[in-house]
Specification:
- This protein is of the alpha+beta class.
- Helices cover 24% and strands 34% of the residues.
- The chain contains 4 helices and 18 strands.
- A hairpin with a 2-residue loop joins strand 16 and strand 17.
- The chain starts with a helix and ends in an 11-residue tail after the last helix.
Amino acid sequence: MIKNKKILYLELLFSLLIIIFTFVIITFLCLKMNEKIEIIIKNNEASNISTNIFENINSRTYNNISEYIQEFSGVGVTKKLDLDNQNIVIDGNLFNDTFFGTKIPNGYILEFNSENPSEDFDITKYITLNIKYKINNNEKNFEISTVIEKENIEECNRPIISEAYFTDLGFNSDDYEFVPIKYSETNNSYIVTSQNDVEWYNYSSKKWAKILVFSVVAENIRDLFIDENGIVKNEVTYGDMSLNVNNYIYVWIPNFSIKDNISYFRYGTSKRAIRLDFKYMNNKYLYTNRVSEEINDISADCSFNGIFGVWRKLDDIDDPYYMNFNKTKFAPINLY
């Protein structure tokens, strides 16, 4: 009987140990599962933070990004900036503002690093985001990187052939046809080209973008000037009249202004000048364009307010855009 009691006691003890062991295992698994769930949640939050920051960065110009980094500050922010590397650390527990339009939540530390390769102009940034957080006092991190490149800033605003840029001249796309042309040394005459032709214009060489404007109603005039090979004749006979091609040529005048007798193209629809930067490296000069300070309008009637440029009739001496541009270093226009 006593033996049976001992066996029963041992069996109960063994069962209890199994229950305790099972409970410990289940508790451990629950804790690990909760930890994994917390990691997933916080990792997703870190991913959202980085996505929002990169979206905000991509909505800005390259120069604006650089200016933002230089000027950024606040409580809970530490910065270490030099010529080729910019490092910013933000403690979400202390920082109550936004970084590139994004709130850094409590419990997160964001490390932002922007590197400019020293061998280049400031035209490329290697950006890394390292977002740190803790799970059960263990530090975790979410890291992501991207590369942003400076916009290719051309010498001047590209010509725009759209109805909006001809309304002030009384032209519309239903009644008029606009034909880009360039000079061909091979044919010793103008020829039809396209807006994508890299040889269409070169303002440094005083080669302005040109188009022919023909009335659709007078369609045969276009056919008189342009043959089946796209070669443009200088003069044609129309009835008892002699017509010169120059009477149908319009030229693109990009947004520009003049300051201290120096002429500048201006970027987009803004008043900020486009300047040429250069750097001497490896026994040669490297060049790139940058957007610089604002240059005031020449006058109220030559202001380019809200527009990239204007089309004007060749040799229109009564037009302020044409006459002012014809006094710049990009003039006089090359004619053939």
